[in-house]
Design brief:
Shape of chain B: globular
Strand order of the largest sheet of chain B: 1-2
Mean pLDDT of chain B: 87
Largest sheet of chain A: 2 strands, antiparallel
Order of helices and strands of chain B: HHHHHEEHHHHHHHH
Low-confidence stretches of chain B: none
Number of helices of chain B: 13
Oligomer: heterodimer
Strand content of chain B: under 5%
Number of strands of chain A: 2
Low-confidence stretches of chain A: none
Chain lengths: 289, 332
């Protein structure tokens, strides 16, 4: 019984981790049909902001993680959209390649500035016991943040003017522009929002993994796969794909090794895309957000 | 039809020059430079393979490193098990080609396109990386060859050509790599002039139209993918020969990124461009590696982003464009 509880907690934790890893990318892909391959580096920046603000400036870890990191990375995202992404709209492959260039450049820059060592911060929550098993309290926090992010996005898209304009531009940008929405501004805001969510994800996951300039590489592939597997609906898609991949990888990790868990995740993604080339929400839940 | 840069006799002269250069270069260079040139040419062959599948087949493969790495591992395992002869070389071409054909069947017959192809090929590369990485320990072996996990396979025997007893010296390896590169390049150019090549280009331009004309687009893409896989595998085999060692890094994300950068910088839609791009970038990386102020990745990333934004066609087509414009301007 205790083992089952721990296992379920680990599975939900893995799903929440995937949600946090991919939601920033999913927002940008879902709304703008752009794959931002520098997404992993946005997460890396978020992690650095959170850890350095706490370790060097003595700001509370909660504030630097939940407020400062998304803010800084979000502003950086707006800058990137203005300088780089804006010129490549409608050229999906070129956008991917240009943001891949940005990702290499950011890794190089971070290596020069921060050095090639892992910086870490101790997890701010203590572990607790379920029966005879010990588990990390931080997993619960990660789950809570993931739920809050999804709920917040849903409220934003469903009930605000910005959300309405955004959903309209998602479906038909030209029509939305004709009706008076300003796609350029919406795209800038969307990219900024996506970047902010990436920064938040990176910051929240930083105490688990530690941060090193190359950490983005370990996020990007999984995020990319989760987003494409989920399809174009931002919230439903990333939740569905994260649940599927998180369960598969955690179950295999439990039965075998973490490496095989990763392999199972990637293999599941390949099979999924083969069966549903438009992703889960391209086939089911088409009308969801 | 684009006017060729050189007339027919000029092409022949360039070919003779290239062969002579490859054969004679070891006589005038020292061993260190020769080893550096060898790896440039090996990487140029890898660039050529992606130039063919991406530039002419229209298949964006983020995982060309998968075939490169498979070729390297296949050669290493073959050479250790049954000697570094032609058998190991053929294995290093056949395994990646077969793997590419299998993967291609799965993708093209499933009608998967663009970004989704990128995801799948990238995921396959990462799976291979993870698998190769997790094989440390004596229980992971194929025949006599220990896979070695993160450390890779050391001291791979160097290729022995048929009819000879001694393994290739660095000079011999350089000549072999150079000649094979020329053969691969000329072979691909010939292939693109055949009916098959014309259909491949037609499929790239408009898949549906080619199918309505009665050509099987899926089969042509599959063939292009398998040929590209075979060439990448050959490059991997030569790479394993060059270093006498192979590790999971051949499947890494960094390796995949580099191949894409070579093709972007050199120019999609040409065969020679990506090879030039590859040598230029490799040379730049080596030069940058010697100093410690600027990070190599930073420069590579900026180069990639600038090329995509400002010179999306790449070096070779842009330069060729200048030439054909001046030629046309000169004509009455």
């Amino acid at each position: 019984m205790d083992l089952a509880a721990i296992f379920s907690l680990e599975v939900v934790g893995a799903i929440a981790t995937l949600v946090l890893m991919s939601i920033g990318l999913a927002v940008v892909f879902g709304m703008m049909k752009i794959i931002n391959l520098a997404h992993g580096e946005f997460m890396m920046l978020g992690g650095y902001v959170a850890i350095l603000a706490t370790n060097r400036l003595g700001i509370s870890i909660w504030i630097s993680m939940l407020v400062l990191a998304p803010l800084v990375v979000g502003l950086f995202g707006v800058l990137v959209e203005r300088l780089l992404v804006r010129h490549l709209y409608g050229r999906m492959i070129d956008t991917m390649l240009a943001t891949w260039g940005l990702s290499l450049a950011l890794v190089g820059l971070a290596t020069m500035v921060f050095g090639n060592t892992t910086v870490g911060i101790s997890s701010p929550l203590a572990g607790f016991a379920v029966g005879s098993y010990q588990t990390s309290g931080y997993t619960l926090f990660v789950i809570a943040v993931a739920v809050a992010v999804l709920a917040g996005l849903w409220l934003l898209f469903r009930f605000t003017d910005l959300g309405l304009c955004a959903r309209a531009s998602m479906q038909n940008a030209a029509m939305a522009a004709a009706l008076g929405a300003n796609p350029g501004r919406i795209y800038t805001l969307t990219f900024g929002l996506g970047a902010a969510l990436s920064g938040l994800g990176g910051a929240v996951l930083a105490p688990v993994t530690g941060i090193i300039p190359t950490i983005g590489a370990s996020y990007i592939a999984k995020a990319f796969i989760t987003v494409i597997g989920g399809g174009s609906s931002v919230i439903t898609g990333s939740l569905a794909a994260s649940s599927l991949f998180g369960t598969v990888s955690q179950a295999v990790t439990f039965a075998a090794t973490p490496v095989l868990g990763e392999v199972a995740l990637l293999a599941a993604a390949i099979v999924l895309i083969r069966l549903l080339p438009q992703g889960i929400t391209g086939r089911f839940f088409k009308r969801s957000i | 039809m684009q006017t060729p840069l050189l007339p027919r006799w000029g092409l022949a002269a360039a070919g003779v020059l290239a062969v002579a250069g490859v054969v004679l270069a070891p006589l005038v260079t020292d061993t260190f430079a020769l080893l550096a040139f060898t790896v440039y040419l090996v990487m140029a062959m890898l660039a050529l393979s992606l130039a063919f599948i991406w530039g002419f087949g229209g298949i964006l493969c983020f995982g060309q490193a998968a075939f490169f790495g498979l070729g390297a591992y296949a050669y290493a395992i073959g050479a250790i098990n049954f000697g570094p002869g032609a058998g190991a070389l053929l294995l290093a071409i056949a395994v990646p080609a077969a793997f590419a054909a299998l993967l291609g069947y799965f993708m093209f017959y499933g009608r998967i396109s663009d970004v989704y192809l990128g995801v799948i090929t990238l995921a396959v590369t990462l799976i291979l990386f993870n698998l190769a990485n997790s094989t440390s320990g004596p229980q992971y072996h194929i025949g006599q060859a220990l896979l070695g996990g993160f450390n890779g396979i050391p001291s791979i025997p160097t290729l022995t050509l048929p009819g000879q007893d001694a393994p290739l010296e660095p000079e011999g390896l350089f000549r072999l790599v150079g000649l094979l590169l020329i053969v691969a390049y000329v072979g691909l150019r010939w292939l693109l002039r055949t009916r098959f090549g014309q259909v491949v280009v037609a499929v790239r331009e408009n898949e549906r139209r080619a199918e309505l004309l009665g050509y099987d687009a899926r089969l042509h893409k599959l063939a292009v993918f398998a040929i590209g896989g075979a060439i990448a595998g050959l490059a991997g085999c030569l790479y394993a020969n060059w270093g006498a060692f192979v590790n999971p890094g051949v499947f890494g994300l960094a390796q995949s990124a580099q191949i894409i950068i070579w093709v972007i910088v050199g120019g999609r839609g040409t065969l020679i461009g990506p090879m030039i791009g590859c040598v230029a970038i490799q040379w730049m990386v080596t030069a940058l590696g010697g100093q410690e102020t600027v990070d190599t990745g930073l420069v590579l990333g900026v180069v990639l982003a600038l090329f995509v934004m400002l010179i999306p066609r790449g070096i070779a087509p842009t330069v060729a464009g200048w030439f054909s414009r001046t030629q046309k301007a000169g004509q009455p």
